[in-house]
Design brief:
The complex is a heterodimer of chains A (513) and B (540). Chain A has 513 residues and is an alpha+beta fold. In chain A, 39% of the residues lie in helices and 21% in strands. In chain A, strands 9, 13, 14, 15, 16, 17, 18 and 19 form an eight-stranded mixed β-sheet that branches. In chain A, strands 1-6-2 form a three-stranded antiparallel β-sheet. Chain B is of the alpha+beta class and 540 residues long. Chain B is elongated. Classes of the chains: A alpha+beta (513), B alpha+beta (540).
């Protein structure tokens, strides 16, 4: 078994052309630096190293790294090596106290400036009252000057010009180290830290080389030329590392929220419902009055509803019936709201506060049973924006109108709808909505959160249906789509739906919904 | 909605049931639990049930629901022999009046607060914030009947609650906290409502404030209650209040109200309202086959009086404190709640219908396929916008087809959009830290001259976008939609001159495309070239 796994020939190693070239050269050189390797194989140094690393992975070569520290002289350093350090030049120049300003006139002001500090530090002169007073004549050559002169001396040797020197080469004694530090500080010498790589061949590599390595050309990119000529048949395809992780790419996509809405739409259509749509601007009549919302109801206030300056005409027949219902209960045994119903209030336009304004009008226009309709659209409330409240949001609404519809049928619709939405556990609690009776609040069970109220439902009051000529019970339910979106998309802030982070759209998975 | 704090100890003693049962049953009775604490529970009752806004009322309903005490609760009513006269000139200001007397009440600090809370919740729930109904509760010992309800001159002075000096009614409206808050209710009148006693002492200035003289203290035992307002709701509000006080141990006494024509009315009227329900009507609405006995049982649990009328129908007596019973179906709902929603078998309707999508949705699906295929991702933005973003930032003039909202809640939402491009520019501006290129589109609603239209708009931002790119995109959209179109020089200032074109279908302008004008780009804080187009797809 193990023999089968043992690699014997070049082909067992799946070597690329470059790897083969490098290996052959390494067989000759044994150990070398990347630059040499690159020159010998006529590859770019990076490509040569890449192949060397790949050979190392395969156990055929070895790459070692070494760090070295060396020193080079700067332009300023060269100048001083030639002419002497500034403090040396000055101390040689003067023999008695001299004013700094005079000296600056005679020599370069920059040089005088540099020299003063070092003259003091080295004890070669004293500075008082803008005067330089030399304390020694021709002081001894310092360690720093010796080091500089070595740079100069070495630079004249033909094979060392311009090359860096190690500490060992530069210093004769350990005590010169502090002088070297001063030179570094004065930026006359620069310290370089370099990483050196050495590539060497392993025994395994040698064995392979001794067996002989054949260099044949491989196909990297398949071309039309190769296809046309059929040349590909005689060549090998370069193998790629299939384990290299890809860079993520993102396709253009449908907004995740739209995908959720589409899903809900699909559920309704599968259940036999007709999709309806309507105006954003609705009269108060269709938004409130037709739904038996009393004219003094707080929800109609400026506080909660976006009112507009425009008004709408109201259909005469509907108007009289709705008026009668509000004032005294119309033709059914209801008490109505009492008081007077004001047509002018009903004519005022609002931004629809619910999509029920659209469904009720549709029912009034289509009173013949059966009607199964749904609407998923935007509704508007005068809410201050915060993470869970927005002045506009999507609402979903379904209605069923048919002979003999009952509350049990409503629960049947709700159970079916929520199950199809992916909520397995649904329960029903009493609820209150101004235009339904009986009313119910469906709740769904969500792991980790418990029972969550998800919408409202009920049978439209007779006070709603009767004035509009709707003769049969209407089952109705609605829910805030954004609430479902938050649950399903794991959002914490509703604004993310409408003010999209493009990265969020890019990264949200198509199959999450 | 009013949130009522119910103390477990009170509830347990009023219902003799443990707290777990109470917590479990309350939601099934028709209320939302707001908070569960060690000592108490906060419950939000529905706004149509003001009779549940007190511990007494909630306990009364719970006792029924838990089968501890069922059927109609009887309230004894004696006459107080107190009269109140109503002047003619109040009829056009605040015409409705209901009064009652309660004797032998034991007050402590807690129960006074509880009464005040109930009063405030009724002001909210029934009273439309005192406009429609407002309530005054007075210590009867400091005033002398008979009383008088009249329209008084605004200069009339008395010491209002929470103050020590006499103030005129006008001063109260200007300076008293309650006066300032509710002054708007009286702003169109030159005389104000007032209730006086036989010695011209002021009881109250409805719907603003009571007189300090009649303030309730822990020593108060006898109460006079006035409820004034604009509709018959005053009667049920009074009933809710007196039944709660009766449940606390007070005895209710009636008051005679005499109007200027000499008509007399004795209130409160605690007689239950009778109505007849057909068994078949009940079962067909709920979708059940409940027997007459079962229905009777559930009605009694919900605290109705109920008797068999004949083998098909039931006689129901509605408690006088129920404000929400407008129609028989309101009673049927209570039967369903009593029976338990979870006991009703859900049945999917058999109605045979075919489902169908709206034209807009079908087009929307097509557009999404076209645009995502072209590398544009969908966004969904707000339809509410403002003039700054919509016009100023776009370097466009304000048009006269815009819908303004009357009382905007913030300066960010003052109009309904007529175009989508500004929203897309805003989204780009929010995404400056994200990788380029960014190409987005929206197929969304706009409102032009109060009518809804459906527009398609798209933008793309990238260092190398130009007119050709957007020209190609528009061409592709039109080709896929099989719409013939032409282009014409545009003068839209949102685009660069010479690099903008109007899109025409059948000679009519439907949209515009081009390279966005540099000033527009910088107005949105962007730093790379942007191209875009917008066109109307349909109205509906």
């Amino acid at each position: 078994m193990s023999e089968q796994k043992q690699k014997h020939e070049a082909s067992d190693y799946n070597l690329s052309i470059n790897e083969k070239k490098i290996l052959i050269d390494l067989g000759e050189l044994e150990c070398t630096i990347p630059k040499t390797l690159a020159e010998k194989t006529s590859l770019k140094p990076e490509a040569a190293m890449q192949s060397a690393f790949l050979l190392e992975e395969k156990g055929l070569a070895k790459v070692d790294e070494e760090f070295s520290v060396n020193y080079t002289i700067t332009g300023e350093g060269v100048e001083y090596a030639d002419n002497g350090l500034p403090e040396r030049q000055i101390v040689e120049y003067i023999s008695e106290p001299v004013a700094i300003d005079d000296l600056k006139n005679q020599l370069s002001p920059k040089m005088v400036g540099i020299a003063i500090g070092w003259l003091k530090k080295k004890g070669w002169a004293d500075v008082k009252n803008s005067m330089i007073m030399p304390s020694v004549n021709s002081p001894e050559i310092g360690d720093d000057e010796k080091i500089l002169s070595r740079f100069k001396q070495y630079a004249q040797e033909p094979d060392k010009s311009g090359i860096a020197f190690t500490e060992k080469e530069l210093l004769e004694k350990d005590s010169e180290k502090s002088a070297l530090k001063d030179l570094l500080k004065r930026k006359l010498v620069i310290k370089n830290e370099e990483k050196y790589r050495y590539v060497s061949i392993t025994n395994q590599g040698r064995k392979l080389v001794s067996q002989g390595i054949e260099i044949e050309e491989e196909i990297t990119q398949l071309t039309s030329q190769l296809l046309k000529t059929g040349e590909w048949k005689n060549k090998n395809f370069r193998s790629y590392n299939i384990h290299t992780p890809p860079k993520p790419v993102y396709g253009a996509k449908i907004h995740p929220y739209q995908r959720l809405i589409n899903q809900m739409r699909q559920i309704f259509i599968e259940m036999g419902f007709t999709e309806i749509k309507g105006e954003i601007i609705q009269s108060s009549f269709w938004n409130f009055d037709a739904l038996f919302q009393p004219q003094d109801h707080p929800a109609r206030d400026m506080q909660d509803t976006f009112h507009l300056e425009s008004t709408s005409e109201i259909d005469e027949e509907c108007k009289d019936n709705v008026c009668a219902m509000h004032e005294h209960g119309g033709d059914i045994s209801s008490t109505g709201w009492g008081g007077l119903w004001d047509e002018n209030i009903a004519r005022r336009n609002v931004l629809r506060t619910h999509t029920t304004a659209v469904t009720i009008k549709y029912l009034a226009d289509n009173p013949e049973p059966p009607v199964k309709a749904f609407c998923i659209d935007r509704a508007y409330r005068r809410e201050t924006i915060d993470p869970t409240h927005l002045p506009e949001f999507e609402q979903l609404e379904g209605v069923v109108m048919d002979k003999n519809m009952s509350f049990a049928n409503l629960l049947g619709c709700l159970a079916e709808f929520y199950h199809r939405m992916g909520f397995e556990n649904v329960r029903f609690r009493p609820g209150y909505f101004p235009y339904t009776e009986p009313s119910v609040e469906p709740e769904v069970y969500i792991d980790g959160m418990g029972w969550i109220e998800l919408g409202g439902a009920g049978i439209f009051r007779k006070e709603v249906t009767d004035p509009l000529g709707i003769k049969h019970p209407v089952l109705a339910w609605g829910l805030g789509v954004s609430r479902v979106a938050m649950l399903k998309l794991g959002l914490r802030d509703l604004r993310e739906l409408y003010q999209s982070d493009i990265d969020w759209i890019r990264k949200s998975e198509v199959c999450r919904l | 909605m009013p949130v009522i704090t119910l103390n477990y100890e009170d509830l347990e003693s009023l219902t003799s049931v443990d707290r777990d049962t109470i917590v479990e049953q309350i939601p099934m009775m028709g209320a939302d639990i707001e908070r569960i604490e060690d000592e108490y529970i906060d419950i939000e009752f529905f706004p149509d049930r003001p009779d549940l806004y007190s511990v007494e009322g909630a306990a009364r309903a719970l006792r029924g629901f838990l089968n501890i005490e069922t059927g109609l609760q009887d309230y004894k009513l004696d006459s107080s022999n107190i009269e109140i006269e109503k002047d003619e000139d109040i009829e056009h200001i605040r015409p409705y009046l209901a009064c009652a007397v309660i004797r032998n009440v034991n007050f402590n600090a807690n129960s006074i607060k509880s009464l005040m809370d109930l009063q405030e919740d009724l002001h909210w729930g029934v009273g439309r914030n005192r406009k429609k109904v407002s309530i005054g509760v007075h210590d009867l010992s400091n005033i002398t009947p008979p009383f008088r309800y009249m329209a008084a001159d605004p200069d009339k002075e008395f010491i209002p609650l929470d103050f020590t000096e006499p103030m005129s009614m006008n001063q109260i409206l200007e300076k008293h906290p309650k006066g300032m808050k509710f002054a708007y209710i009286l702003e169109s009148f030159d005389k104000y409502p007032m209730i006086l006693d036989a010695e011209d002492n002021v009881l109250s200035f409805p719907p603003i404030i009571n007189s300090k003289r009649t303030q309730i203290t822990e020593n108060t035992t006898d109460l006079f209650i006035d409820v004034t307002g604009l509709s018959e709701s005053v009667y049920v509000a009074l009933n809710v209040l007196v039944t709660a006080l009766a449940d606390r141990g007070g005895s209710v006494e009636s008051v005679k109200i005499i109007d200027s024509d000499g008509n007399e009315k004795t209130l409160p009227d605690l007689e239950p309202l009778s109505c007849k329900l057909e068994v078949s009507e009940i079962n067909s609405l709920i979708g059940t086959g409940l027997s007459q006995d079962e229905i009777l049982k559930q009605l009694q649990r919900m605290r109705y009086g109920a008797d068999i009328k004949n083998n098909k129908s039931i006689e129901v007596k509605v408690p006088p404190y129920r404000a929400d019973i407008l129609h028989n179906y309101d009673i049927v709902e209570d039967i369903a709640i009593g029976y338990g929603y979870d006991n009703i078998q859900p049945v999917f309707p058999e109605s045979a219908t075919f489902g169908s999508a709206h034209e807009v949705s079908i087009i929307s699906d097509n557009i999404c396929e076209i645009m995502t295929g072209l590398g544009y991702s969908e966004v969904m933005s707000f339809t509410l916008s403002n003039e700054r973003v919509h016009f100023d930032n776009m370097c466009r003039n304000i048009t006269d087809d815009v819908t303004y909202v009357m009382h905007p809640i913030s300066e960010d939402q003052t109009i309904v959009r007529t175009t989508i491009l500004p929203n897309l520019m805003e989204i780009l501006s929010m995404n400056q830290h994200r990788e380029l290129p960014q190409s987005i589109f929206e197929f969304g609603d706009v409102v032009i001259n109060s009518k809804i239209h459906r527009n398609l708009a798209a933008v793309s931002i990238h260092p190398e976008v130009n007119f050709t790119d957007i020209r190609e995109i528009v061409d592709a959209v039109m080709r896929e939609r099989m719409v013939e179109y032409e282009v014409e020089e545009s003068d839209d200032p949102a685009f660069i001159g010479g690099r903008r074109a109007d899109i025409l279908v059948n000679g009519k302008k439907v949209g515009v495309m081009g390279e966005i004008y540099p000033q527009v780009i910088t107005n949105f804080g962007l730093g790379e070239p942007v191209i875009g187009f917008e066109m109307e797809i349909m109205d509906y």
